[in-house]
Specification:
The chain has eight helices and nine strands. By secondary structure, it is an alpha+beta fold. Among the domains are: 82 residues, no CATH class; 133 residues, Sandwich (Immunoglobulin-like), CATH 2.60.40.1120. The longest helix has 40 residues.
């Protein structure tokens, strides 16, 4: 009986133990491969952090503002291996304007000049950094007033000749000579007449100023886009919709209510996250936004954003390429099918502007 048990134990040692060791070796290989792939996917292609990339772009923008050499600027952007550099510079301009860094901020001004040279500036940037100046009113030349020199004068009239005294006869002792009358010269000189213009007969009626036409909606969308990924083949980690509300002059406007079109998530009010700002969180979902109430609480009409989602399949491939999550449309198709994108980790920027 003991001999039979010993044989069974011997077989177990010979067969089971090697198989167990082999399984451990295979598992170790797969764990090593997975760790290597994860490390490779999360590695920074440029070797620079987000702060270092931003500092480098600011330095390149300052150099361009001083030299106006766009070719040198492009070479400098290529040197830090920043894909979609044009869109990244445009995103930095939008972010700086949203932070209240206006035309007096040197970094914002330099970034706008570089974005404009790269062809990625927008109308809203130009309006925010270069507000229009009023056109001066033309001044009419003064009308000439006729002087006394231009008025016709009458020729002076000749004085009447003085009659010579006629000789008189020798007076007789009884007759007294009668004196003759001497003509008195005129004392009043006639004043030349002045030409008084006649009053106008046809006075034009003033033209009434037309009433301005009210815009079709109270708020329009000036920007709504997927925030670019600074480093290809990585995930920034944000999952918010950053909303800014501006008045008609481009200044932050607080107290405006923004809601999703299906009224699934609670409404938010501008000013909760800074002047004119609010934020919606994205948790593997997506929705469209619109303004529903003005700052005084009265109902408002608004344009509606596209669906802003953190789900890969909901995001158009063109958005992903433009934001540096894919190299091209074919790359997007491969990444979506193999779940190699940033599912649940996307951020958007939206600006609503009042129309009056």
């Amino acid at each position: 009986m003991k001999s039979k048990s010993s044989k069974i134990l011997f077989l177990v040692v010979i067969i089971i133990v090697p198989l167990f060791c082999l399984a451990l070796a295979v598992a170790g290989i797969f764990i090593g491969i997975g760790f290597s792939a994860t490390t490779s996917a999360n590695s920074d292609v440029t070797g620079l952090s987000g702060e270092e990339i931003e500092a480098a772009v600011l330095e390149i923008a300052a150099d361009y503002a001083a030299t106006q050499d766009v070719d040198v600027a492009r070479e400098s952007l290529n040197a830090i291996h920043l894909p979609n550099a044009d869109q990244y510079v445009s995103f930095m301009v939008d972010r700086y304007i949203g932070e209240g860094r206006g035309p007096d901020d040197a970094d914002t001004h330099n970034l706008f000049l570089l974005a404009n040279a790269l062809g990625s500036s927008t109308t809203s940037m130009a309006l925010a950094l270069n507000p229009p100046t009023p056109t001066p009113t033309a001044t009419l030349p003064p009308t000439s007033t006729p002087t006394s020199e231009s008025l016709p004068t009458e020729e002076p009239q000749a004085e009447a000749p003085v009659e010579e005294a006629q000789p008189t006869e020798e007076p007789t002792p009884t007759e007294t000579p009668i004196p003759t009358e001497t003509p008195i010269p005129p004392t009043d000189t006639p004043v030349p007449p002045t030409n008084t213009p006649a009053p106008p007969t046809n006075t034009p009626e003033p033209t009434p100023t037309p009433e301005p036409t009210k815009p079709p909606v109270d708020f329009v969308i000036t920007e709504a886009y997927l925030i670019p990924n600074p480093v290809y083949n990585s995930c920034p980690g944000a999952r918010q919709i950053y909303v800014t509300v501006l008045d008609v002059n481009g200044n932050p406007l607080d107290g405006v209510t923004v809601e999703d079109t299906f009224r699934v998530v609670p409404p938010l009010v501008s000013g909760q996250k800074g002047p004119g700002k609010l934020e919606y969180d994205l948790w593997s979902n997506g929705f469209s936004l619109e303004v529903t109430k003005k700052e005084d609480g009265s109902p408002a009409s608004s344009e509606v954003t596209p669906k802003l989602s953190s789900v890969d399949e909901d995001i158009p491939d063109e958005w992903l390429v433009q934001a540096n999550y894919c190299k091209d449309l074919a790359d997007c198709a491969v990444r979506k099918s193999s779940n190699q994108l940033c599912r649940g980790h996307y951020a958007y920027n939206v600006i609503f502007k009042k129309t009056y």
